[in-house]
Specification:
- This protein is α/β, with parallel strands linked by helices.
- It has 3 domains: about 200 residues, 3-Layer(aba) Sandwich (Rossmann fold); about 70 residues, SH3 type barrels (Roll), CATH 2.30.30.280; about 80 residues, Translation factors (Elongation Factor Tu (Ef-tu), domain 3, Beta Barrel).
- Helices cover about 25% and strands about 30% of the residues.
- It has 7 helices and 17 strands.
- Strand 5 and strand 6 form a beta hairpin.
- The longest helix has 20 residues.
- The protein is globular and about 75 Å long.
- The chain starts with a strand and ends in a 5-residue tail after the last strand.
- This is tRNA-specific 2-thiouridylase MnmA.
- It is an enzyme of class 2 (transferase).
């Protein structure tokens, strides 16, 4: 019987490298695919495409798999980057990794792999797939600190049916250990932290090239002007550093100290940025949210009721009451949530099962005693 063929996305990082080895150990015929998603100035100090390609080829040689490079830069620009810029221009804060997974890694890449005769695709994401009664479920990874189901919540039944996540059952420490035992050339390579196409470059400098922006007032909720912003696109809700109001006279606490300033609201129409003092200011707390651009893993919305949610990556799951359908949903939180940000994804969970989610449109501030 011929082996099942798996095409794995190899980025030059340690996770996808160990994934390729694990698949080979499990008896699959493995082919590596290196995705080039960005071409503008990709030879600069911040963009390491060439270095990553060399690492991926070196690993493929050690593991004993063939590897090819495929260029998805035009699809990326059309499907991910254009949307990213649209959202920023509208004053929201998008998450391009969510879009990149839905549109590139599990669409353009999946299509390409199927043309190569693949039975499955695989990636180095930390997540799991489980089949139950003919339905595919997306589950959190066993290593809770690395779980990436949040970024994968837009995957559908067909995509999950064709996807393997070799790292779903193991911990990151184990992955590093395997890489060292195999003497992979990238065993000690640092994990990339930047947005895929921005890399580690200064964010504001990057956006400057693509967005039109105009400076405007920074105000307090009471309407007092306390500074000038450089363009609303460059700020995100809950931001504390780099607002540019450091020298402002602040409300003093009883002990003479003063609370930090935070970005609390962007008024795009008036081109005004609102800043508040104190981490727990009411303007930073939301009791509910509404989301659109909805995607459900099962193909249909869960039943209304109690679930848990993340409104940003790296946040612990929080209890919520869900109401919604295939187009929109709302979440109500028993405990007010901090800096719920339009443009980010609200992702729903039932225990370890990721149900799907949507893009936050609006968050309702917590009611406080006047």
């Amino acid at each position: 019987m011929s082996k099942k063929k798996v095409v794995i996305g190899m980025s030059g990082g340690v996770d996808s490298s160990v994934s390729a080895w694990l698949l080979k150990e499990q008896g699959y015929e493995v082919i590596g695919l290196f995705m080039k998603n960005w071409e503008d100035d990709d030879d600069s100090e911040y963009c390491s495409t060439r270095e990553d390609w060399i690492d991926a080829v070196s690993v493929a040689d050690v593991v004993g798999v063939d590897i090819e490079a495929v260029n998805f830069a035009s699809e990326y620009k059309d499907r991910v980057f254009a949307e990213f810029l649209r959202e920023y221009q509208a004053g929201r804060t998008p998450n391009p990794d969510v879009l990149c997974n839905a549109e590139i890694k599990f669409k353009a890449f999946l299509d390409h792999a199927m043309k190569l005769g693949a039975d499955y695709i695989a990636t180095g994401h930390y997540a799991r797939v489980r089949e139950m009664n003919g339905q595919f479920q997306l589950l959190k990874a066993m290593d809770a600190s690395k779980d990436q189901s949040y970024f994968l919540h837009r995957l559908n039944q067909q995509q999950l049916a064709n996807t393997l996540f070799p790292l779903g059952e193991i911990h990151k420490t184990e992955v590093r250990k395997i890489a060292e035992q195999l003497q992979l050339p990238n065993a000690k390579k640092k994990d990339s932290t930047g947005i895929c196409f921005i890399g580690e470059r200064p964010f504001r400098e990057f956006l400057n090239r693509y967005l039109s922006y105009k400076p405007g007032d920074i105000q307090t909720p009471e309407g007092e002007i306390i500074g000038q912003h450089v363009g609303l696109s460059f700020y995100t809700l809950g931001q504390r550093k780099g607002i540019g109001i450091g020298g402002i006279k602040s409300h003093q606490n009883a002990d003479g100290s003063s609370d930090a300033w935070y970005v609390a609201k962007k008024d795009v129409t008036a081109n005004t940025l609102y800043a508040v003092q104190g981490h727990d200011h009411p303007w930073l707390l939301s009791e509910s949210l509404e989301a659109g651009q909805v995607s459900w893993v099962a193909g249909h919305a869960p039943q209304a009721g109690d679930l848990s949610a993340k409104t940003r990556y790296r946040q612990p799951d929080v209890a919520c009451e869900f109401n919604g359908d295939e187009q929109r949903f709302s979440l109500a939180f028993p405990q007010a949530q901090w800096a719920v940000t339009p443009g980010q994804s609200a992702v729903l969970y039932d225990g370890d099962v990721c149900l799907g989610g949507g893009i936050i449109d609006v968050a309702a501030r917590a009611h406080t005693e006047s």
